Amino acid sequence: MKSPANGAAAAVTNGEGGEKKSINPELWQACAGPLVNLPAAGTHVVYFPQGHSEQVAASLKKDVNAQVPNYPNLPSKLLCLLHNVTLHADPETDEVYAQMTLQPVSSFDKDALLRSDLALKSNKPPTEFFCKILTASDTSTHGGFSVPRRAAEKTFPPLDFSMQPPAQELVARDLHDNVWNFRHIYRGQPKRHLLTTGWSLFVSGKRLFAGDSVLFMRDEKQQLLLGIRRASRQPTNLSSSVLSSDSMHIGILAAAAHAAANNSPFTVFYNPRASPSEFVIPLAKYYKAVYSNQISLGMRFRMMFETEESGTRRYMGTITGISDLDPVRWKNSQWRNLQVGWDESTAGERRNRVSIWEIEPVTAPFFICPPFFRSKRPRQPGMPAYSRGPCLGLVMISA
Amino acid sequence: MKSPANGAAAAVTNGEGGEKKSINPELWQACAGPLVNLPAAGTHVVYFPQGHSEQVAASLKKDVNAQVPNYPNLPSKLLCLLHNVTLHADPETDEVYAQMTLQPVSSFDKDALLRSDLALKSNKPPTEFFCKILTASDTSTHGGFSVPRRAAEKTFPPLDFSMQPPAQELVARDLHDNVWNFRHIYRGQPKRHLLTTGWSLFVSGKRLFAGDSVLFMRDEKQQLLLGIRRASRQPTNLSSSVLSSDSMHIGILAAAAHAAANNSPFTVFYNPRASPSEFVIPLAKYYKAVYSNQISLGMRFRMMFETEESGTRRYMGTITGISDLDPVRWKNSQWRNLQVGWDESTAGERRNRVSIWEIEPVTAPFFICPPFFRSKRPRQPGMPAYSRGPCLGLVMISA
DNA sequence: TTGTCTCCCTTTGGGAGACAA
DNA sequence: TTGTCTCCCAAAGGGAGACAA
């Protein structure tokens, strides 16, 4: 679990929304979940239009139409310089997302790879927080929020237990810097921590239901922050009335193709909780995965998943096939080209296709300093930008 | 004021949203407003990507970025066959919109023009309805809705005045076919029509506020229908977290350009209450305007506007200039290329640019059967599709 | 004719401990 | 340790005529 604090140093939501307030990066990260790992501004990334398109399809609950044209000049991945990352939250739903400005570049050097690698390694440990899935009682109109004991003791300011009953007013800020006041009281038989006055306003204001999660943390000034995470709900059908989904998919491809043709910047939104996979990958992460991992059928691997209450755990799996996810549109793409099976058949909703940078092979444990930093392949003159290098599909030039 | 009943005969919302219910076309029209006039499916239209882009900009409250590339092969207007029109309403906000499937065609014949003209003339008179702007009392938590006397007598089933007080249960359906129940009672001193029980559920369910409008009508089976129209509210900032506005604008242009290049169908959404102007114009309306109206500086004209409470009135104006709205992107476009001044300076929020088909010149009153049906200009061989004809910019071939 | 106010009484729902999982 | 229930009482709000614009 990584903090975006360095990845999005200028984490101010002055993007399209024109918001004024800055988003707290630790709170954003906590809401986004432990698997989300934003690349750092100023580093190189690999952008997968196919994954981007997939996210939009997931957001709209609508598959890509066969009508959407191919962009034959748009490769399945673009090496880009990530100029800018800003953190946002939907003002209506509090859904977190990031806006990234990418500029296609035709090659990278050793220094770019080192910087990307350094950025990955220099991520701060995540800020501590507690996250509770709301119960029916928490969201009912009768009474407040039952605070897990350890959470209250760890995260809330200590109560004055000489009072009878011990109680205090809490002030917490959400992602939009809105202030929420709660009465925190320690009472009942047996004793427990509760949030009473102010809680129901919060629940109705955020339209929370049992199954959604609320999370509290303290920032460096010891101020309380709170965020929400909605239970992944059934087809909300976001079907936009602004643009047809075809036009959206065309827009993604055309914007990327235009940027690639002109080496001009373009903007994407990454929506961690809508999409099955990240589609903007730090260069070092991509490079290591492609270079280090000798993929073969039957290979065993581990992969991280998010648990309830914002934890992580690894599941074991086996590679059962290597093939194009979309052999028509995206031939020879590395986007989720590995077919996999999972050891535990429980909860069979794990994905049956993954990308190589998502997994940790268990057969190759000693790649602490893999040999890829020695690779110096000069850019071949006359080679068109984005043509595939022999192994990587990306052109590295010596510094 | 025209009804979309013939324009959208198959007015079923089975579009992207995947809704099942059919939208009542009369109710949709009443919600859309008296100026909205959908072209009929199966007829020819002129599509203006510039106007489409403008609507998206208005929806997003975001101007087109200079980064958006030009599509040099995309003309400022496309002659299209309108395959399909379906009516929709946003499930969250009840905002009405229409989905149209357009297919670029390279020319039209006399018959197409006649069919378009016939469809314009064969529109049914609009269904009667009443529309009231909600007062503070109507939307307060204390008490119900005060029904204007004439409206209640015209639209609601008659009360049994032998009851004391006279009262009945009303059942009304909204655009989504949801049922709303109201107690309709005639009481108070002096006597008046009121909706009591059920009203506040409707107000909170639709999130209505003073200034929004509610409208009631009866369908051909005498069933009550009700719709809403929201007051044009301040910057709602719909800034999507799915696609950057640049990508959206590129998507519009790329989709239209792709369709034009392949003569393949594409889909647009028309959002009558978001956009300042219609961007899909019935061929006959366009043709008549361009042929009949000799535009000159200083020319006087009238133009229809919508009043409060869903009426119409004409304002007089003068043409003060003829110039490109966007001389860089859309050179020689007819989209809002007329600069105008208005006789009444009151409420100066009238637009200072209009398109020729929006106005009625007052200097040429006798164009009942204009001479354009005699024009038979054979399509010139070797002329690329969409090239501008000498006068019209559209190629007509003899039947 | 109809918008707002105020009064009256029902309904809703915060806030407490009891109790059980 | 914490989720649900029920009880109690305060606050919210629907439904009526009064009154005035």
UniProtKB/TrEMBL annotation, chains A, B:
Subcellular location: Nucleus
GO cellular component, as recorded: nucleus
Keywords from the named record: Auxin signaling pathway, DNA-binding, Nucleus, Transcription, Transcription regulation
Chain spans, region Disordered: 1-20
Source taxon at top rank: Eukaryota
KW Nucleus (keyword) present: yes
InterPro entries xref list: ARF_dom (IPR010525), ARF_plant (IPR044835), B3_DNA-bd (IPR003340), DNA-bd_pseudobarrel_sf (IPR015300)
UniProt cross-references to CDD domains, sorted A to Z: B3_DNA
GO biological processes: auxin-activated signaling pathway; regulation of DNA-templated transcription
Transcription regulation is among the record's keywords: yes
GO molecular function: DNA binding
TF-B3 domain mapped to chain residues: 130-232
Assembly with partners or alone: Homodimers and heterodimers.
PANTHER family recorded: AUXIN RESPONSE FACTOR 19, AUXIN RESPONSE FACTOR 4-RELATED
Task performed by this protein: Auxin response factors (ARFs) are transcriptional factors that bind specifically to the DNA sequence 5'-TGTCTC-3' found in the auxin-responsive promoter elements (AuxREs).
Family statement drawn from the similarity comment of this UniProt entry: Belongs to the ARF family.
Protein name listed in UniProt: Auxin response factor
UniProt source species: Salix viminalis
